[in-house]
Design goal:
Keywords: Glutamine amidotransferase, Transferase
CATH class: Alpha Beta
Radius of gyration: 18 Å
GO molecular function, one term: transferase activity
Strand order of the largest sheet: 4-7-8-9
Protein name: Phosphoribosyltransferase domain-containing protein
Oligomer: single chain
InterPro entries: PRTase-like, PRTase_dom
Number of domains: 1
Mean pLDDT: 82
Organism: Lotus japonicus (Lotus corniculatus var. japonicus)
Length: 261
């Protein structure tokens, strides 16, 4: 379909593409490193070590550490024999996957004030398990830094993201999310800073998952529910799931986008 304003998925630079890729004419590695630098500049915190949630948070963590002048170390080791947890159908399975997939390094973490950089927060349940893993390994403080803005809207263009009701940033403020995941502080990449980094290329990208403003409005306001309705802490009954599809709460998205909450 011809479209006068083509839009490119910003999540290629945040998560999807390999770091050595050049996507839409931009180096993915450079983008992620600069995301980390922005976080270190705009959301600094006193810390002893910077670590990443592997593998997608590594380059942003390197950028954060370099800008902050703090050592980067491998505080979490990822097993390459476990699949992605955010698409698992049950919360219990996702929790088990996190424990198998990520192993903390006590020698790096014990007694330290730790900044942990991740690419995004979707439901928040994985982040809460990571914070718990780090503190159980002896981390004195855990400060989460997220190399993307809060995700408040589902993707209707082929990315199998959860419904808006499952997206934690669509239901909670940053401070409420911080309390939910148990970190000592939490900061996201501001969308204005992200767009400023992209410069003249900024209008070419789609930010619908961050803004709720869709380049092409969906014809039906339904999205696929990927997660387990009950175990994700949402209110309602399993009977309310209509064949695996749920009504998207667009009014909620629009209010969040308009207020900036």
């Amino acid at each position: 379909m011809a479209h006068p304003e083509p839009k490119q998925c910003i999540f290629e630079h945040i998560y999807f593409a390999l770091p050595n890729s050049v996507v839409f004419g931009r180096s993915v590695y450079d983008s992620r490193r600069q995301f980390g630098e922005i976080l270190a500049t705009e959301s600094p915190v006193d810390c002893d070590v910077v670590i990443a949630v592997p593998d997608s948070g590594v380059v942003a963590a390197l950028g954060y550490a370099a800008k902050a002048g703090v050592p980067f170390q491998q505080g979490l080791i990822r097993s390459h024999y476990v699949g992605r947890t955010f698409i698992e159908p049950s919360q219990k399975i996702r929790d088990f996957g996190v424990k198998l997939k990520l192993s903390p390094v006590r020698a790096v973490l014990e007694g330290k004030r730790v900044v942990v950089v991740d690419d995004s927060i979707v439901r928040g349940t994985t982040s809460s398990k990571i914070v718990r893993l780090l503190k159980e390994a002896g981390a004195k403080e855990v400060h989460m830094r997220i190399a993307s803005p809060p995700i408040i809207g589902s993707c209707y263009y082929g990315v199998d993201t959860p419904s808006s009701e499952e997206l934690i940033s669509n239901r909670m403020s940053t401070e409420e999310i911080r309390e939910f995941i148990g970190s000592d502080s939490l900061a996201f990449l501001p969308i204005n800073s992200l767009q400023g980094l992209l410069g003249k290329d900024s209008p070419n990208f789609c930010y619908a998952c961050f803004s709720g403003k869709y380049p092409v409005e969906p014809r039906e306001l339904k999205v696929k529910r990927v997660g387990d309705f009950v175990d994700d802490g949402l209110n309602g009954s399993l009977e309310s799931i209509d064949g695996g599809w749920v009504q998207a709460n667009r009014n909620h998205i629009e209010v969040k986008a308009a207020t900036g909450l």
